[in-house]
Amino acid sequence: MRAIAARPGSSEPYFVDAPEPPEPGPGEVLCRTLELGVCGTDREILASKQPWTPPGESHLVLGHECLARVEAVGDGVTLEVGSLVTPVVRRARPSADPGMRVDMLTFGDYVERGIVEEHGFSLPLWLDRPEHLFLVDPGLKPLAVFAEPLSVAEKAVNEAIRLQTARLTPETWSDPPPRVLVTGMGPIAFAAILAARCRNWPVVIYGRDADDSPRAQLAQELGAEYLPADRAAFDQHDSFTGGYDLVLECTGAEEVLLAAAHVLNARGVMVWLGADRVGRSRSLNLANAMRRAVVGNHLHLGSVNAAPRDFADALQHLAQMQASHPQPMAALISDRAPFHDALAQYQNRNKQGVKAIVQYEK
Ligand code: BGC
Fold it and tell me: InterPro entries recorded for this chain (predicted)?
């Protein structure tokens, strides 16, 4: 069988021959990939020319957003053959602190399938353990591949809620709800809109697209207000209450992060969800953002990956939005390629698309 891989020294994705997995042993599940999401992380792994290959291997099989079907189970597994599942990305290494939530582990204490030292789900067949799989309702099949990116946004929101209720009052952000600003227009930004709207929070999305672009339209159909960057004028903002209580920063661009810091309210939270892996550094005046952070008791929160709680929320919220907004939710999956034609999705991005997926034959 073939899988989509990255290798050191090359930025080109390629098809690699991979052995079929053996029958599942006790406690194991054999899964078949039905749909695979392509994401910015895949493209960054390729662009780096330095994938984290599994020890002793010459390549990394890509793929960490996946909808799969259970093909066979080993002894002691209660999952039914034929069930739909979606796997989590990160798994603790045996050396990791067992008391630490997996998504909070430090680099070196975990592997990530398709990202860090373990092959991913572009393999048509792979083995896993049930504790890494979430059951998917058959009705959610068309959207379930979006559960993993949504879990990342859900974590940001869940962490922010916990921190705010801990440092303020248990009722914080229930009535009135927080005003949310999402910066960016990629898949995580759209996921952030869903995480906010499912909680009935008002949300504004800030991006560089024209008002009438398909992505700006889609964001509005999902219930967000669109704020184009050229009309934002964040630097002229001087109130501590007329801005946003929660900023979900999804661009990874320091200019945008700093611009958004100008409109973070007192006691506000900004969660950093994007990061520029290349780490380009620019000389920027941080003084105002720092002053506001100090005087406003801001919390700047970096967030990566997702806890089981966030994955469960993602699946529930996808179903909720599918029921309330069926058309725009379907439009989130903007590009589809059959497996044999998948490589182009890793090399080119549809600039007005949200999520590109690879569809497997069986
Ligand atoms: C994935 C996360 C992962 C992160 C860092 C993201 O694309 O969605 O689950 O932890 O990359 O590797």
Answer: ADH-like_N, Glu_dehyd_C, GroES-like_sf, NAD(P)-bd_dom_sf
